[in-house]
Amino acid sequence: ERALSLGAAKAKAQFMGDHGMTLLDPDGHPFCLVTG
User: Fold this and answer.
1) CA distances, 34 to each of 15, 28 (Å)
2) What angle is formed at CA 10 by the lines to CA 34 and CA 25, rounded to 5 degrees?
3) Nearest CA among 3, 19, 1, 2 for reference residue 30
4) CA 4 – CA 10 distance, rounded (Å)
5) What whole-number distance in Å separates Cα of residue 27 and Cα of residue 34?
6) pLDDT score recorded for residue 24
7) Are 34 and 19 in contact (CB under 8 A)?
8) Which of 22, 27, 20, 2 is nearest to 12 (CA)?
9) pTM higher than 0.90, yes or no?
10) 12 — phi, psi (to 5°)?
11) How far apart, in whole angstroms, are the C-alpha atoms of residue 36 and residue 29?
């Protein structure tokens, strides 16, 4: 939620399953956030 509030957007394609989330930075570059 913090990344989204800073301008990231949730990517349509998700690759992490239950282990994280694929996001896009404001320029459209993908990055992943991994959960514990």
Assistant:
1) 11, 19
2) 85
3) 3
4) 8
5) 21
6) 98
7) yes
8) 22
9) no
10) -65, -40
11) 23
pLDDT digits (tens, 9 = 90+) for 1-36: 899 999 999 999 998 888 999 999 999 999 999 987
In angstroms, the CA 22 to CA 3 distance is 11
Structure tokens at 10: 């949730």
3-state secondary structure of 12: coil
Instruction: Please classify residue 20 by burial: count the beta carbons closer than 10 Å to its beta carbon, then call 0-12 exposed, 13-18 middle and 19+ buried.
Output: middle
* Among the listed residues 17, 16, 5, the one whose alpha carbon sits nearest the alpha carbon of residue 30: 16
Written as six digits, the tokens of 28 are 């459209």
Report the distance separating Cα 4 and Cα 19, nearest Å. 18
